[in-house]
Sequence to fold (365 residues):
Amino acid sequence: MSSITKNRGETVTPAIPALDTAGVTALLERGRTLATPVLRAAVSRLAPPMDAVAAYHFGWVDAQGRPVAGDGGKAVRPALALLSAEAAGRAPDTGVPGAVAVELVHNFSLLHDDLMDGDEQRRHRDTVWKVHGPAQAILVGDALFALANEVLLELGTVEAGRAARRLTTATRKLIDGQAQDISYEHRERVTVEECLEMEGNKTGALLACAASIGAVLGGADDATADTLERYGYHLGLAFQAVDDALGIWGDPVATGKQAWSDLRQRKKSLPVVAALAAGGAASDQLARLLADDAGKTEAEFADFDEEEFATRAALIEKAGGRDWTSQEARRQYATAVAALQEVDMPSDVRDRFVALADFVVVRER
Fold:
């Protein structure tokens, strides 16, 4: 593992500042409060039953269509979009259309990812394809992507066109990342660099867009938007590194997913590829087990008991994959925060960007 750590920059693993929980909670709540009414209005344009299916996915109704006070997610992306408008010197609500557009694209990807990955749980309840069927999951996902562009372009401004181009590019990269992720499941070996590229596409691209889209709508120049995108991109990599660790060692009660969820799906996530690249007895044993797994059918693999997955998780940790992933999250955090120093913005806005980065790296679910 030492060679990987050295190549990736061993010295840049800063301590994360004490998290301003109340401040971050207020930021996330502001994003939800300003974006949710516009998001609901956009979803209401969908033809039945897609409107009801989308409402179920967002946590607004239960499987029978009855209103509930659901969990719509952490709302990190809407919070970033509103902050980026403030970074450009505009009121936060300037970023609302961007916040809604990014959230629609994010949820389009979740609907399709859950189906492709066979995930039966999200946010502590059954996923859309499990409740409403695969066809509805596909259709509603497609509809949300179309709505995202509609929400932006109906503004009819030059800035809206610029924002839509950035969102479309981010969406294409997100899809590239999902395609890479699926293809890696069937490969015996994936390099750390390939994994980081995939996660930069799958997660970093949309967070990069969220961190810049409000500024673009507020009239910021491309240099400013590009720098904010850099912050969001590296924040996305930090976010995904944390998520990869939770995908193996996370508490199912907190994550809302099965124990060892990423191992069940044979994902070549950062802890796995780092452990395989480390060398040593644990790494070699893990490689042999994964090579043997490749010859098994999905049904045979699904019959594994908990002890089988626990063995793999223990080998990944012993080979150093868990520690390396934690260090990588901190390195990406440091790179993201450093980018903020290149943008001329009010100091309190910069502090809130940093606080959101802190939240991403120290979150538990």
Observations:
- Residues 158-185 form the longest helix (28 residues).
- Confidence is low (pLDDT under 50) at residues 1-14.
- The chain has one domain: 2-362.
- Residues 2-362 form a domain with the Farnesyl Diphosphate Synthase fold (CATH 1.10.600.10).
